[in-house]
Protein backbone atom coordinates (compact mmCIF):
# COMPACT_ATOMS: atom_id res chain seq x y z
CA UNK A 1 0.00 0.00 0.00
CA UNK A 2 1.25 3.48 -0.84
CA UNK A 3 1.41 6.07 1.91
CA UNK A 4 -0.86 8.36 -0.13
CA UNK A 5 -3.60 5.73 0.19
CA UNK A 6 -3.15 5.62 3.96
CA UNK A 7 -3.24 9.43 4.05
CA UNK A 8 -6.62 9.36 2.32
CA UNK A 9 -7.94 7.07 5.05
CA UNK A 10 -6.53 9.48 7.65
CA UNK A 11 -8.48 12.26 5.93
CA UNK A 12 -11.71 10.24 5.97
CA UNK A 13 -11.26 9.30 9.63
CA UNK A 14 -10.52 12.90 10.53
CA UNK A 15 -13.79 14.03 8.95
CA UNK A 16 -16.09 11.95 11.17
CA UNK A 17 -16.77 11.50 14.87
CA UNK A 18 -19.20 8.59 14.43
CA UNK A 19 -17.75 5.34 15.75
CA UNK A 20 -19.70 3.12 13.34
CA UNK A 21 -18.43 5.13 10.39
CA UNK A 22 -14.88 4.98 11.74
CA UNK A 23 -15.20 1.20 12.06
CA UNK A 24 -16.34 0.92 8.43
CA UNK A 25 -13.48 3.11 7.19
CA UNK A 26 -10.92 1.15 9.20
CA UNK A 27 -12.32 -2.21 8.08
CA UNK A 28 -12.00 -1.07 4.47
CA UNK A 29 -8.41 0.03 5.13
CA UNK A 30 -7.50 -3.24 6.85
CA UNK A 31 -8.92 -5.32 3.99
CA UNK A 32 -6.34 -3.71 1.69
CA UNK A 33 -3.43 -4.30 4.06
CA UNK A 34 -1.21 -7.35 3.71
CA UNK A 35 0.34 -9.26 6.60
CA UNK A 36 3.63 -7.35 6.28
CA UNK A 37 2.04 -3.93 6.80
CA UNK A 38 -1.05 -4.42 8.99
CA UNK A 39 0.94 -3.95 12.21
CA UNK A 40 2.67 -0.85 10.84
CA UNK A 41 -0.66 0.69 9.82
CA UNK A 42 -2.09 0.17 13.30
CA UNK A 43 0.94 1.77 14.95
CA UNK A 44 0.76 4.72 12.53
CA UNK A 45 -2.97 5.18 13.23
CA UNK A 46 -1.86 5.95 16.79
CA UNK A 47 0.94 8.22 15.57
CA UNK A 48 3.60 5.75 16.67
CA UNK A 49 6.10 3.20 15.38
CA UNK A 50 5.76 0.83 18.35
CA UNK A 51 3.17 -0.23 20.94
CA UNK A 52 2.30 2.20 23.73
CA UNK A 53 4.35 0.39 26.37
CA UNK A 54 7.55 1.02 24.40
CA UNK A 55 8.50 4.59 25.22
CA UNK A 56 9.77 5.40 21.75
CA UNK A 57 9.42 9.03 20.68
CA UNK A 58 10.52 10.89 17.54
CA UNK A 59 12.22 13.61 19.55
CA UNK A 60 11.42 16.38 17.08
CA UNK A 61 10.06 19.75 18.16
CA UNK A 62 8.13 22.19 15.97
CA UNK A 63 11.39 24.03 15.33
CA UNK A 64 13.18 20.90 14.09
CA UNK A 65 10.27 20.00 11.83
CA UNK A 66 10.36 23.54 10.43
CA UNK A 67 14.07 23.03 9.71
CA UNK A 68 13.25 19.83 7.82
CA UNK A 69 10.52 21.61 5.86
CA UNK A 70 12.87 24.49 4.99
CA UNK A 71 15.39 21.95 3.72
CA UNK A 72 12.77 20.03 1.74
CA UNK A 73 11.13 23.07 0.14
CA UNK A 74 14.31 25.17 -0.20
CA UNK A 75 12.76 28.20 1.51
CA UNK A 76 14.11 30.30 4.40
CA UNK A 77 13.10 28.95 7.79
CA UNK A 78 12.21 32.52 8.79
CA UNK A 79 9.49 32.53 6.13
CA UNK A 80 8.04 29.24 7.38
CA UNK A 81 8.13 30.52 10.97
CA UNK A 82 6.19 33.62 9.92
CA UNK A 83 3.52 31.54 8.16
CA UNK A 84 3.37 29.16 11.13
CA UNK A 85 2.54 32.09 13.42
CA UNK A 86 -0.31 32.97 11.06
CA UNK A 87 -1.97 29.56 10.65
CA UNK A 88 -0.57 27.48 13.53
CA UNK A 89 -0.58 24.13 11.70
CA UNK A 90 2.61 22.72 10.21
CA UNK A 91 0.58 20.14 8.29
CA UNK A 92 -1.25 22.88 6.41
CA UNK A 93 2.03 24.68 5.71
CA UNK A 94 3.26 21.49 4.04
CA UNK A 95 0.25 21.62 1.71
CA UNK A 96 0.97 25.26 0.90
CA UNK A 97 4.63 24.74 -0.01
CA UNK A 98 4.73 21.20 -1.36
CA UNK A 99 5.40 21.06 -5.09
CA UNK A 100 3.23 17.99 -5.60
CA UNK A 101 4.06 15.54 -8.34
CA UNK A 102 3.73 11.78 -8.59
CA UNK A 103 6.27 10.86 -5.91
CA UNK A 104 5.21 8.38 -3.25
CA UNK A 105 6.57 5.69 -0.95
CA UNK A 106 5.00 2.55 0.45
CA UNK A 107 3.64 2.47 3.99
CA UNK A 108 6.47 0.11 4.94
CA UNK A 109 9.14 2.43 3.50
CA UNK A 110 7.77 5.43 5.41
CA UNK A 111 7.40 3.40 8.60
CA UNK A 112 11.00 2.18 8.39
CA UNK A 113 12.39 5.71 8.03
CA UNK A 114 10.19 6.96 10.89
CA UNK A 115 11.45 4.06 13.01
CA UNK A 116 14.99 5.07 12.12
CA UNK A 117 14.30 8.71 13.08
CA UNK A 118 12.91 7.60 16.45
CA UNK A 119 16.07 5.60 17.18
CA UNK A 120 18.73 8.07 16.02
CA UNK A 121 20.78 9.24 18.98
CA UNK A 122 24.18 10.58 19.91
CA UNK A 123 26.38 13.17 18.27
CA UNK A 124 24.89 14.61 15.09
CA UNK A 125 21.49 13.07 15.79
CA UNK A 126 19.57 16.33 15.40
CA UNK A 127 20.90 16.98 11.90
CA UNK A 128 20.35 13.33 10.98
CA UNK A 129 16.71 13.44 12.10
CA UNK A 130 16.12 16.68 10.17
CA UNK A 131 17.70 15.26 7.02
CA UNK A 132 15.71 12.01 7.16
CA UNK A 133 12.44 13.88 7.71
CA UNK A 134 13.23 16.26 4.82
CA UNK A 135 13.80 13.20 2.63
CA UNK A 136 10.38 11.80 3.56
CA UNK A 137 8.59 15.11 3.01
CA UNK A 138 10.11 15.34 -0.47
CA UNK A 139 9.27 11.72 -1.27
CA UNK A 140 5.53 11.88 -0.57
CA UNK A 141 2.42 13.50 -1.98
CA UNK A 142 1.31 16.78 -0.35
CA UNK A 143 -1.38 15.05 1.72
CA UNK A 144 0.99 12.25 2.64
CA UNK A 145 3.59 14.76 3.82
CA UNK A 146 0.93 16.67 5.76
CA UNK A 147 -0.01 13.62 7.83
CA UNK A 148 3.62 12.55 8.12
CA UNK A 149 4.44 15.85 9.84
CA UNK A 150 1.49 15.44 12.21
CA UNK A 151 2.66 11.94 13.12
CA UNK A 152 6.17 13.15 13.94
CA UNK A 153 4.78 16.00 16.07
CA UNK A 154 2.34 13.74 17.92
CA UNK A 155 -0.61 15.66 16.48
CA UNK A 156 -2.33 12.94 14.46
CA UNK A 157 -5.52 13.05 16.50
CA UNK A 158 -7.97 10.79 14.71
CA UNK A 159 -10.04 9.95 17.78
CA UNK A 160 -9.70 6.20 17.30
CA UNK A 161 -9.62 3.95 20.34
CA UNK A 162 -8.44 0.37 20.61
CA UNK A 163 -12.02 -1.01 20.80
CA UNK A 164 -12.82 0.57 17.43
CA UNK A 165 -9.68 -0.91 15.88
CA UNK A 166 -10.52 -4.36 17.27
CA UNK A 167 -14.06 -4.14 15.88
CA UNK A 168 -12.68 -3.11 12.49
CA UNK A 169 -10.19 -5.99 12.42
CA UNK A 170 -13.10 -8.38 12.98
CA UNK A 171 -15.25 -6.69 10.34
CA UNK A 172 -12.40 -6.85 7.83
CA UNK A 173 -12.29 -10.64 8.09
CA UNK A 174 -15.81 -11.70 9.12
CA UNK A 175 -18.01 -8.70 8.19
CA UNK A 176 -19.23 -8.54 11.80
CA UNK A 177 -17.91 -8.37 15.39
CA UNK A 178 -17.85 -12.12 16.02
CA UNK A 179 -14.04 -12.31 16.03
CA UNK A 180 -13.62 -9.37 18.42
CA UNK A 181 -13.42 -11.56 21.60
CA UNK A 182 -10.45 -13.52 20.16
CA UNK A 183 -8.65 -10.30 19.21
CA UNK A 184 -9.40 -8.65 22.55
CA UNK A 185 -8.18 -11.65 24.54
CA UNK A 186 -4.87 -11.64 22.65
CA UNK A 187 -4.55 -7.89 23.13
CA UNK A 188 -5.16 -8.19 26.87
CA UNK A 189 -2.28 -10.66 27.05
CA UNK A 190 0.21 -8.79 24.84
CA UNK A 191 -0.81 -5.10 25.09
CA UNK A 192 0.34 -4.84 21.47
CA UNK A 193 -2.51 -4.47 18.98
CA UNK A 194 -0.13 -4.21 16.03
CA UNK A 195 1.42 -7.57 16.87
CA UNK A 196 -2.00 -9.14 17.47
CA UNK A 197 -3.23 -7.91 14.08
CA UNK A 198 -0.15 -9.30 12.32
CA UNK A 199 -0.60 -12.73 13.93
CA UNK A 200 -4.33 -12.62 13.13
CA UNK A 201 -3.60 -11.74 9.48
CA UNK A 202 -1.09 -14.58 9.20
CA UNK A 203 -3.01 -17.36 10.92
CA UNK A 204 -6.54 -16.28 11.80
CA UNK A 205 -8.10 -16.74 15.23
CA UNK A 206 -6.36 -20.12 15.65
CA UNK A 207 -3.03 -18.30 15.81
CA UNK A 208 -4.16 -15.90 18.52
UniProtKB/TrEMBL annotation:
GO molecular function annotation: ATP binding; DNA binding; DNA ligase (ATP) activity; metal ion binding
Pfam families to which the protein is assigned, alphabetical: DNA_ligase_A_N
Gene3D superfamilies: DNA ligase, ATP-dependent, N-terminal domain
KW Cell division (keyword) present: yes
Record InterPro entries: ATP-dep_DNA_ligase, DNA_ligase_ATP-dep_N, DNA_ligase_N_sf
Keywords recorded for this protein, A-Z: ATP-binding, Cell cycle, Cell division, DNA damage, DNA recombination, DNA repair, DNA replication, Ligase, Magnesium, Metal-binding, Nucleotide-binding
UniProt KW DNA repair keyword: yes
Domain DNA ligase ATP-dependent N-terminal: 3-170
GO biological process, one term: DNA recombination
Superkingdom of this protein's organism: Bacteria
Similarity section: Belongs to the ATP-dependent DNA ligase family.
Protein's recorded name: DNA ligase
Annotated organism of origin: Dictyoglomus turgidum
